[in-house]
Specification:
Layout: E1 13-18, E2 21-26, H1 27-31, E3 35-41, H2 47-59, H3 61-66, E4 71-76, H4 80-90, E5 97-100, H5 105-109, E6 113-115, E7 123-125, E8 128-133, E9 136-142, H6 154-160
Parallel strand pairs: 3-4, 4-5
Antiparallel strand pairs: 1-2, 3-8, 6-7, 8-9
Protein backbone atom coordinates (compact mmCIF):
# COMPACT_ATOMS: atom_id res chain seq x y z
CA UNK A 1 0.00 0.00 0.00
CA UNK A 2 1.34 3.41 -0.96
CA UNK A 3 1.24 6.09 1.71
CA UNK A 4 -1.06 9.03 1.09
CA UNK A 5 -1.93 12.39 2.56
CA UNK A 6 -3.32 11.99 6.07
CA UNK A 7 -1.43 8.76 6.81
CA UNK A 8 0.95 8.43 9.75
CA UNK A 9 4.49 7.40 8.87
CA UNK A 10 5.35 3.85 9.94
CA UNK A 11 7.97 3.22 12.57
CA UNK A 12 11.39 2.49 11.08
CA UNK A 13 15.02 3.13 11.88
CA UNK A 14 17.23 5.25 9.66
CA UNK A 15 20.94 5.90 10.03
CA UNK A 16 22.59 9.30 10.02
CA UNK A 17 26.28 9.93 9.72
CA UNK A 18 27.95 11.71 12.64
CA UNK A 19 31.55 12.52 13.52
CA UNK A 20 31.50 9.30 15.58
CA UNK A 21 30.10 7.17 12.75
CA UNK A 22 26.56 6.04 11.90
CA UNK A 23 23.86 6.79 14.45
CA UNK A 24 20.35 5.31 14.42
CA UNK A 25 17.33 7.62 14.25
CA UNK A 26 13.78 6.30 14.50
CA UNK A 27 10.76 7.69 12.72
CA UNK A 28 9.48 8.94 16.08
CA UNK A 29 12.74 10.77 16.77
CA UNK A 30 12.91 12.26 13.28
CA UNK A 31 9.30 13.34 12.87
CA UNK A 32 7.65 13.41 16.29
CA UNK A 33 6.34 16.79 17.41
CA UNK A 34 7.70 18.81 14.51
CA UNK A 35 7.03 19.92 10.96
CA UNK A 36 9.49 18.46 8.48
CA UNK A 37 10.14 18.86 4.76
CA UNK A 38 11.23 15.55 3.25
CA UNK A 39 12.49 14.55 -0.15
CA UNK A 40 13.57 11.14 -1.32
CA UNK A 41 15.96 10.28 -4.11
CA UNK A 42 16.74 7.07 -5.97
CA UNK A 43 20.43 7.44 -5.14
CA UNK A 44 23.10 9.79 -3.90
CA UNK A 45 25.45 11.15 -6.55
CA UNK A 46 23.14 10.04 -9.39
CA UNK A 47 22.70 12.78 -12.02
CA UNK A 48 19.19 14.11 -11.35
CA UNK A 49 19.54 13.69 -7.59
CA UNK A 50 22.93 15.38 -7.45
CA UNK A 51 22.48 18.13 -10.02
CA UNK A 52 18.80 19.03 -9.57
CA UNK A 53 16.86 17.55 -6.66
CA UNK A 54 19.26 18.10 -3.74
CA UNK A 55 20.33 21.56 -4.98
CA UNK A 56 16.69 22.68 -5.13
CA UNK A 57 16.30 21.95 -1.41
CA UNK A 58 19.64 23.54 -0.55
CA UNK A 59 18.65 26.73 -2.40
CA UNK A 60 15.25 26.92 -0.68
CA UNK A 61 16.27 25.86 2.84
CA UNK A 62 15.62 29.32 4.30
CA UNK A 63 12.25 29.56 2.54
CA UNK A 64 11.21 26.16 3.93
CA UNK A 65 12.21 27.23 7.43
CA UNK A 66 10.32 30.50 7.03
CA UNK A 67 7.22 28.49 6.09
CA UNK A 68 7.45 26.37 9.23
CA UNK A 69 9.69 23.42 8.34
CA UNK A 70 11.82 22.82 11.42
CA UNK A 71 14.03 20.37 9.54
CA UNK A 72 14.61 19.09 6.01
CA UNK A 73 15.45 15.43 5.48
CA UNK A 74 16.69 13.59 2.42
CA UNK A 75 15.87 9.87 2.40
CA UNK A 76 17.69 7.43 0.15
CA UNK A 77 18.14 3.68 -0.02
CA UNK A 78 21.88 4.10 0.41
CA UNK A 79 24.16 3.38 3.34
CA UNK A 80 25.01 6.18 5.79
CA UNK A 81 28.62 6.32 4.58
CA UNK A 82 27.50 7.17 1.03
CA UNK A 83 25.00 9.75 2.28
CA UNK A 84 27.63 11.23 4.58
CA UNK A 85 30.03 11.56 1.66
CA UNK A 86 27.26 13.14 -0.43
CA UNK A 87 26.52 15.67 2.31
CA UNK A 88 30.25 16.48 2.53
CA UNK A 89 30.65 16.77 -1.25
CA UNK A 90 27.67 19.13 -1.55
CA UNK A 91 28.14 21.07 1.71
CA UNK A 92 24.46 20.39 2.43
CA UNK A 93 24.74 19.25 6.07
CA UNK A 94 23.89 22.65 7.55
CA UNK A 95 20.47 22.60 5.89
CA UNK A 96 19.64 18.96 5.18
CA UNK A 97 19.85 15.83 7.31
CA UNK A 98 20.57 12.72 5.28
CA UNK A 99 18.54 9.71 6.44
CA UNK A 100 19.93 6.42 5.17
CA UNK A 101 17.29 3.75 4.64
CA UNK A 102 19.99 1.20 3.86
CA UNK A 103 17.81 -1.88 3.44
CA UNK A 104 14.82 0.08 2.16
CA UNK A 105 12.60 -0.96 5.07
CA UNK A 106 10.98 2.47 5.46
CA UNK A 107 10.70 2.92 1.69
CA UNK A 108 8.96 -0.45 1.31
CA UNK A 109 6.67 0.22 4.29
CA UNK A 110 5.35 3.39 2.62
CA UNK A 111 5.07 1.75 -0.81
CA UNK A 112 7.69 3.95 -2.47
CA UNK A 113 10.15 1.27 -3.58
CA UNK A 114 11.48 1.46 -7.13
CA UNK A 115 12.97 -1.66 -8.69
CA UNK A 116 16.03 -0.64 -10.68
CA UNK A 117 17.68 -4.07 -10.68
CA UNK A 118 17.46 -4.13 -14.48
CA UNK A 119 19.83 -1.15 -14.48
CA UNK A 120 22.15 -2.69 -11.89
CA UNK A 121 21.00 -0.42 -9.05
CA UNK A 122 18.84 -2.78 -7.00
CA UNK A 123 15.70 -1.66 -5.21
CA UNK A 124 15.72 2.07 -4.52
CA UNK A 125 13.23 4.78 -3.62
CA UNK A 126 10.87 6.59 -5.91
CA UNK A 127 11.53 10.31 -6.11
CA UNK A 128 9.11 12.27 -3.96
CA UNK A 129 8.73 15.15 -1.55
CA UNK A 130 6.40 15.51 1.39
CA UNK A 131 5.54 17.77 4.26
CA UNK A 132 5.12 15.87 7.51
CA UNK A 133 3.58 17.29 10.71
CA UNK A 134 4.12 15.26 13.88
CA UNK A 135 4.55 12.09 11.84
CA UNK A 136 1.47 12.64 9.62
CA UNK A 137 1.79 13.27 5.89
CA UNK A 138 0.24 16.65 5.03
CA UNK A 139 1.50 16.93 1.44
CA UNK A 140 2.86 14.23 -0.87
CA UNK A 141 4.36 14.92 -4.30
CA UNK A 142 5.53 11.88 -6.28
CA UNK A 143 7.38 11.98 -9.59
CA UNK A 144 6.05 9.94 -12.51
CA UNK A 145 9.56 9.49 -13.90
CA UNK A 146 12.46 8.82 -11.49
CA UNK A 147 14.85 10.55 -13.89
CA UNK A 148 13.07 13.89 -13.43
CA UNK A 149 12.74 16.23 -10.49
CA UNK A 150 9.81 18.48 -11.37
CA UNK A 151 6.86 17.63 -9.11
CA UNK A 152 9.03 16.98 -6.05
CA UNK A 153 11.38 19.97 -5.99
CA UNK A 154 11.59 22.41 -3.12
CA UNK A 155 9.69 24.98 -5.19
CA UNK A 156 6.89 22.48 -5.80
CA UNK A 157 6.71 21.66 -2.10
CA UNK A 158 6.66 25.35 -1.21
CA UNK A 159 3.83 25.91 -3.72
CA UNK A 160 1.88 23.03 -2.17
CA UNK A 161 2.35 24.58 1.29
CA UNK A 162 0.28 27.64 0.25
Amino acid sequence: MTITTGDRLPEATFATMTADGPKPMTTSEAFGGKTVAVFAVPGAFTPTCHLNHLPSFMAKADDLRARGAEATYCIAVNDPFVLGAWADATASADDITMLADGSGDFTKAIGMELDLTGKGLGVRSKRYAMLVEDGVVKTLLVEDNPGEAVKSTADALLDAMD
